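Contributing new records

If you add data, match the layout below exactly. Sequence lines come first and carry their own label; structure lines follow with theirs. Keep one chain per record. Anything else will be rejected by the validation script.
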Amino acid sequence: MRLSGGVVGRGAKLDDRFHETSIVKDRHRSREFVEFLKLLNAAYPAGTAIKLILDNHSAHISRETQAWLATQPSGRFAFTFTPKHGSWLNLIEGFFSKFARSVLRHIRVATKQELKERIMLGIKDVNRHPVVHTWSYKLAEAA
């Protein structure tokens, strides 16, 4: 999300109930990504595998991220990385594209904090009325 004077980064996940969990920060570095992982860790019962589809951002594979993951039980987090230029494979990218077009389009905000608040309010609204997404892409159709 661009705002005059800066960029707002976001991290998000959709779960099997199609609820979205987000974190909105001024930056997207390893420490923000680890903070997001901690949020997910707290949201799910111990013993539940948390599977994430990620792009190839350096924060996802950094030493800081790897060090934090090493403190977690084996199998708690599983990462699958999309190929470069394959963001369309990541359902959350489609969610944010639609979200930006429907919720954030034509809004005016004075500060990054106001933008963050608007994003989080929009996500709370989405979570009040979750919609199940059925993946319809067929591998055979790609050839």
